[in-house]
């Protein structure tokens, strides 16, 4: 990788994908700034680089001046900020649209050379899902002020601590059954967090990526049922039931579950499950970036399989 990246600002750098990216950036010698509402959460990442190389700063991404100060004199800006469910003061529109627009405006004004926006497969400003529509609006807002931005759209991302396999593996061990929402027919193309991080690094170093959108998926697609079946086997509970939950019933249950701490299921997530989450084939992907997609079977067992006692 290039050692001349200079100052790189990573919004969302302390998150699941962000940790992989920061570790790779540190090896290039880049000076890494990680703006965060909770800069203390960034502290463990500082050991990935030399003393003073990785710098957390406190920020409110709703503050234009604070964002502008964070990206000043930056060579590259990466926006990874995203949420799976809204919380008080952090709705989809504010986080995935308005904040993305604010960060891109500030980067453009600062003369930043490269901007990478992390989106998602299914991003569509006209979607009936608040998650997907805000991701789509965020993409459009970024493109409007930073036309050369590189947009990355991953499918569900796996790796230690992920929000899918880790979550359902934990559920499989404590619940009598796993829910097949909509019959489990929705298709996904899980992509490894390390591959997504490698895609970011290519986008930072390869000028031919400028202004392009990439869909990032793993080597094959699976139905939701296939994935849950795989989860229960790897979690050591192969006999756990898979119970079909029609969409109307799942929506009704989500009405109550989204009121619980952690929002285990929301109505918006049920809407998302009505559409496949796989690459379209009409946009470039990992192989176009020179990255061979990693099979989930090589990674998921390393953190999902119960320890031998």
TrEMBL record:
Protein name: Complex I NDUFA9 subunit family protein
Organism: Niveispirillum lacus
MF annotations from Gene Ontology: protein-containing complex binding
One of the Pfam families matching this protein, by short name: Epimerase
Domain NAD-dependent epimerase/dehydratase: residue ranges: 8-217
PANTHER family (UniProt xref): NADH DEHYDROGENASE [UBIQUINONE] 1 ALPHA SUBCOMPLEX SUBUNIT 9, MITOCHONDRIAL, NADH-UBIQUINONE OXIDOREDUCTASE 39 KDA SUBUNIT-RELATED
Residue ranges of the TM segments: none
Taxonomy, superkingdom: Bacteria
């Amino acid at each position: 990788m290039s050692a001349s990246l200079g100052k790189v600002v990573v919004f969302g750098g302390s998150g699941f994908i962000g940790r992989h990216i920061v570790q790779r950036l540190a090896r290039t010698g880049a000076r890494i700034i990680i703006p965060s509402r909770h800069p203390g959460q960034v502290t463990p990442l500082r050991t990935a680089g030399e003393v003073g190389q990785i710098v957390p700063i406190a920020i409110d991404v709703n503050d234009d001046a604070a964002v502008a100060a964070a990206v000043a004199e930056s060579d590259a800006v990466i926006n990874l900020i995203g949420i799976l469910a809204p919380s008080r003061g952090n709705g989809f529109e504010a986080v995935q649209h308005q904040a993305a627009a604010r960060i891109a405006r500030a980067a453009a004004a600062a003369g930043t050379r490269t901007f990478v926006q992390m989106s998602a497969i299914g991003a569509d400003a006209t979607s009936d899902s608040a998650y997907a529509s805000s991701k789509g609006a965020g993409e459009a807002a970024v493109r409007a002020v930073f036309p050369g931005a590189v947009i990355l759209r991953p499918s569900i991302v796996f790796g230690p601590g992920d929000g899918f396999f880790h979550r359902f593996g934990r559920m499989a061990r404590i619940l009598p059954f796993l829910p097949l929402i909509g019959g489990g027919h929705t298709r996904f193309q899980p992509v490894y967090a390390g591959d997504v991080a490698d895609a970011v690094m290519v986008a930072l170093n390869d000028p031919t990526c400028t202004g392009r959108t990439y869909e990032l998926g793993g080597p094959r697609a699976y139905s939701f049922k296939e994935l849950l079946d795989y989860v229960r086997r790897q979690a050591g509970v192969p006999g756990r039931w898979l119970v079909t939950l029609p969409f109307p019933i799942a929506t009704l249950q989500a009405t109550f579950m989204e009121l619980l701490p952690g929002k285990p299921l929301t109505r918006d997530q049920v809407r998302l499950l009505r559409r496949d989450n796989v690459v379209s084939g009409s946009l470039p992907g990992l192989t176009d970036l020179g990255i061979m997609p990693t099979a989930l079977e090589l990674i998921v067992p390393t953190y999902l399989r119960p320890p031998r006692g």
